[in-house]
Design brief:
By secondary structure, the protein is an alpha+beta fold. The protein has a single domain, classed as 3-Layer(aba) Sandwich (Cytidine Deaminase, domain 2). It has 4 helices and 6 strands; from the N terminus they run βαββαβαββα. A 6-stranded mixed β-sheet has the order 1-6-5-4-2-3. α2 runs parallel beside α3. The radius of gyration is 16 Å and the shape is globular. It binds tetrahydrodeoxyuridine. Tetrahydrodeoxyuridine binds next to α2.
């Protein structure tokens, strides 16, 4: 038996102004996108923005449905649109932010497991690290790549492996 430890590195900032101007711009776009979410059932408005490697910015927000499983998360809306319309461009940085059920910037924003898997696929597809910024009312967290969000992940390599 052996025990392994996985160490995740997260840079935590207190204020928007501590980040680079390009990160600040991207975060503001995510916040703006959250305001345009369609979330009448949860009232949790999520916004995502991403910058492609050529500088193009794409945004997305959660889109709910009365038939609840049909709704989609903000990050997946943004990633799928970006990958579908710019299939040759890697995502350099992706932001997630949210507005809570009281209409205030949400604390402890964190992407769901399904979105982590989709982020990982996009990173894997372009073979370039995708920075992740989690913009919360109480902190702004920056991860250098998706790996820390999904340790022991399942990815395309698993399909090819021969045991
Ligand atoms: N949601 C997202 O948009 N992204 C996440 O990573 C977590 C959850 C949305 C889905 C649903 O519309 C609402 O937040 C409440 O779960």
């Amino acid at each position: 038996m052996k025990t392994k430890e996985i160490i995740i590195s997260i840079s935590e900032f207190e204020k928007l102004e501590e980040l680079s101007t390009s990160d600040q711009e991207l975060i503001l776009q995510a916040r703006a996108s959250a305001l345009q979410a369609y979330a009448p059932y949860s009232n949790y408005l999520v916004g995502s923005s991403l910058r492609l490697e050529d500088g193009t910015i794409v945004t997305g927000n959660n889109q709910e449905n009365a038939s609840s499983p049909l709704g989609t998360c903000a990050e997946r809306a943004a990633i799928f649109w970006a990958n579908g319309n710019y299939p040759g461009l890697a995502i350099e940085t992706l932001v997630v932010t949210a507005i809570d059920q009281n209409g205030q910037p949400a604390a402890n924003v964190s992407p769901c497991g399904a979105c982590r898997q989709v982020m990982l696929e996009s990173q894997h597809r372009f073979k370039k690290p995708m920075r992740i910024i989690l913009d919360s009312s109480n902190k702004i967290e920056v991860l250098d790549n998706v790996n820390g969000l999904l340790p022991l992940s399942f990815n395309g390599n698993s399909l090819k492996s021969i045991v």
